[in-house]
Amino acid sequence: MDTNHPDRLAATDDVAERFHRWYYDNGVWETVRFLGVPCLKSVMDLWNYQEILFELKPSLIVEFGTRHGGSALYFSMIGQGINPLLRVLTVDIEDHLLDPQVSRVPAIEFMKCSSTDSAVAARITELRNSLPGPMFAILDSDHRQPHVLQEMLSLRSVMRSGDYLVVEDSNINGHPVLPGWGPGPFEAIAEYVRQFPDDYVRDEARECKFGFTFAPAGFLRRA
């Protein structure tokens, strides 16, 4: 891209934002399936995640927000293709939408509780002790700022240098979708960084790779 032409850059950014709004506002993400199971994510983000997983080669993936389980299934299959010993811990307060085929995958462990419950951090610690290697964590449950901030704080003691964290849906509350939502993940990230500025390094190359993401400012590598 020619960075000597700011008008051209501005036009490119405008096209990306309009596509982002179209993709989100028309509910395209709600139609995304992985092996028939609803996944409810941007397909660009999903592709980015598998590239990150290949580079990171984690032994544990932690997901807050299971819903139908499509993303847990995706993470388990991609992750085990990289590391056959990989485990996925996925957490949600509900399980009535969980697809039965997800429950049958031995590599996936489901916890029915709040992602901020102390039992979750304790279970992550247990898994980390038995599964040496990096961790990939992704936050996609309750999108209100206080909850997301508490999730990030709960992970602070279990994340290690080199681990990777994605905070999803930081695009809401006008970043650029759903203006008027109120403080959400984007604001939670900003508050966490204000409190602990040296914890994470923002991975802007990943964030910008495919033109737009549902996780602006939310691709974070533990320092």
- Strand percent estimate: 15-25%
Helicity level: 40-55%
Largest sheet: 7 strands, mixed
Uncertain segments: none
- Structural class by secondary-structure content: alpha/beta
Shape category: globular
Q: Calculate the terminal CA-CA distance, rounded to whole Å.
A: 30 Å
Count every beta strand, where a strand is a DSSP E run of 2 or more residues: 9
Count the DSSP helices.
Answer: 8
Helix and strand element order: HEEHEHEHEHEHEHEHE
Mean pLDDT: 95
Name the strands of the widest sheet in spatial order.
5-4-3-6-7-9-8
Q: What Rg do the Cα atoms give? A: 17 Å
Summarize the topology:
Elements: H1 6-25, E1 33-34, E2 37-38, H2 43-56, E3 60-64, H3 70-82, E4 87-92, H4 100-103, E5 108-112, H5 118-130, E6 135-139, H6 145-155, E7 164-167, H7 185-195, E8 200-202, H8 204-208, E9 219-222
Parallel strand pairs: 3-4, 3-6, 4-5, 6-7
Antiparallel strand pairs: 1-2, 7-9, 8-9
Helix pairs in contact: 6-7
